Amino acid sequence: MKKRNQPPRLAVALHYDGEGAPKVTASGAGHVAEQIVELAREHDIPLHQSEELVELLAQVPLEHEIPEALYRVVAEVIAFAYLIKGKFPEDARRRR
């Protein structure tokens, strides 16, 4: 298991505006990965650690939507992020 304070070897940032699929907005290894994680922390953006998922997402070109094969797992990560931030998309509120 990876230690929490160990620098990431790879990191990917996603953006989801509620339309279409989430897009990869940043991706990098080493120092760039550390910068991605640091910026997320500075802006209180929830982090999720999964080496397998980040390796798959790192293959997606910047500003491209994630592939359909990753919709479910990424949806679970986004739902968890909304949950811990206390925010839910408007359409999810209507379904509850």
UniProtKB/TrEMBL annotation:
It comes from the Bacteria. Keywords: Bacterial flagellum protein export, Protein transport, Transport. Pfam families: Bac_export_2. GO terms for cellular component: plasma membrane. Coiled coil: none annotated. SUPFAM superfamilies: EscU C-terminal domain-like. One of its GO terms (biological process) is protein secretion. InterPro entries: T3SS_substrate_exporter, T3SS_substrate_exporter_C. Belongs to the type III secretion exporter family. Required for formation of the rod structure in the basal body of the flagellar apparatus. Together with FliI and FliH, may constitute the export apparatus of flagellin. This is Flagellar biosynthetic protein FlhB. It comes from Alkalilimnicola ehrlichii.
